[in-house]
């Protein structure tokens, strides 16, 4: 079994950020570096590349490796990087874990097997293989709308038996499920991290005991998601609840104005980043809808006092 980690627990706001692309759909390395620098400067607690919002399935293995290297270099040890490492098989996922460790990531995030809907027994067997052989700490990723679910008893057993498995991100948005999960796992693994991936319930999830969040809106309004976290941790329920509707407003606008996660690509552009076109082809109507979405998002962000990043902000060549 892989050795236990003695690193601090994963907590706070970790950004599942998108990847800027150039006009030809290639990774814009300098702009990715600038975007990460900007996020860190805005006070986020960590970075979460190659997640669902980060469109990991639209990049090759080599590109995903490049993304992790760039993000780790830009973070420069100031905040932890929890890198997506999900591949099609356990063996390939373990190889991805090895690369993330070499690149400087603090931990990896591994989604349950996707496309094929697997039984709880198969999901557990998959994570047992990873828990036993990963050279880097692992956070589970429960997103039942897109992948096989990770049942609560499975999470508890994995947390008890595998020191390398240190936390879980839950994007179900189900508050009662999160409460049951925390109640089942925290008594047997006090340092286990519980991260919510559901923006509309950010405040509520933090108040019921989550350690932090990896929410897509944090890549657009890192200042506000960080403020909600700080308020919730300080017991300022009124303050956190006052900001939560703004997060929901951005979430709804991004999710309803374009196919996920394209709305967040548009939103990041509104904050001043050259995000480029999606790799997913779009119809003429979708392109027109995105232009309208950009106008609405720009107006919302201006209302919230969210200024655009200057082109000169944190421009540091990758090479």
Account of the protein in words:
The chain has 319 residues and is α/β, with parallel strands linked by helices. The longest helix is centred in the last third of the chain and has 21 residues, at 237-257. Helix content is 45%, strand content 10%. The chain has a domain at 12-234: Aldolase class I (TIM Barrel, Alpha-Beta Barrel), CATH 3.20.20.70. Helix 9 (237-257) crosses helix 10. The radius of gyration is 19 Å and the shape is globular. The chain has an 8-stranded parallel sheet.
Total DSSP E strands? 8
What portion of residues belong to β-strands? 5-15%
In terms of per-residue confidence, which ranges show pLDDT below 50 for 5 or more consecutive residues?
314-319
Give the C-level CATH assignment of the domain at 12-234.
Alpha Beta
| Helix segment tally | 11
> Can you name the CATH architecture of the domain at 12-234?
Alpha-Beta Barrel
CATH superfamily of the domain at 12-234: Aldolase class I
Question: Any idea what the shape is?
Answer: globular
SSE arrangement, N to C:
EHEHEHEHEHEHEHEHHHH
What percent of the residues sit in helical stretches (DSSP H or I)?
A: 40-55%
Largest sheet: 8 strands, parallel
Q: Do you know the CATH topology of the domain at 12-234? A: TIM Barrel
In spatial order, strands of the major sheet run: 2-1-8-7-6-5-4-3
Structural class comes to alpha/beta
Q: How far apart, in Å, are the first and last alpha carbons? A: 37 Å
Mean pLDDT: 94
Radius of gyration (CA) equals: 19 Å
